[in-house]
Amino acid sequence: MKFVEEIVVDEFLPTVRSLLAGRLREQGLTQSEVADVLGISQSAVSKYAHGDVATNNRIAEDERVQALVDELGEGLAAGDVTPVQALVEIEILIRELEGGGDLLAQLHEEAVPELADHGSSFRVHDPESDLRTSERVLSSLRRGLRILENASGFVTLIPAVGSNLVACTPDASDIDDVAGVPGRIFDVKGQATVPTDPEFGVSEHVATVLLAAREHGSGASAAINVRYDPDLLAQLSEAGHVTAEFDESDDVASSVGAAVDESPEATVLYQTGGMGIEPLIYVLGPDAETVADSVRSLL
């Protein structure tokens, strides 16, 4: 299995960095200055200069790549283009080259010939395709999970039932359109443990809360559940979140929907528990990374 993003990382970026490093050196910049501009080490610049980094000739010879490298090389050397502006321009070119039938799409399909057998090799490179949309959701979810795994103290926020970070596709209508962690995130000997990679259709509870909120007008595309604590609610409110309470002893979807109807701007939903029901806080957001950052800010 190889994603087009791997072609970008393994072949496109080394090639473009190598070309840019060469152009900047031609403009009179030192290795140290080139390293600063490109955000890489001097040793990496040296490797590019001596041809010690593998590059892709088809990418290097593409007229659009050459034109952009020339433009950015001159602009960066003169100070007319900032590294951030250069990054944006390169990102735009990457998206163009990922289009169906274009250079990166061709390289991807050559690396994964099975795509042709799948019958959707041309659609996998369409930014609006189901395959690309699903992969973007999973990629966002993986990044969010890494934020939580690396957040010191996150384990203290995991409720007894476990946490789950979920994210959904733009047109999600049921739990099969929501990705989450199979088995949830648990506290294992004081360590937040993500048992396996996220998948679609594996979260029922948190997915139900997210879908119900969306059905009643919430713009959220991701959510997580953490333990209930009034102090945590206060922190979230101070951070700018709008909180709304619902009653989980009733039908969850209906209760969440009613809460969102009353507080359309709510990004934090909570219930204080009941007989056999653990009190929980649900943090919602536009994507998994944003939700994970909101939780990390509580630590």
Automatic annotation (TrEMBL):
UniProt domain HTH cro/C1-type: residue ranges: 26-48
Protein name: HTH cro/C1-type domain-containing protein
InterPro entries: Aldolase_II/adducin_N_sf, Cro/C1-type_HTH, Lambda_DNA-bd_dom_sf, ThiN
GO MF: DNA binding
PROSITE patterns: HTH_CROC1 (PS50943)
Entries under Pfam families matching the protein: HTH_3, ThiN
SMART domains: HTH_XRE
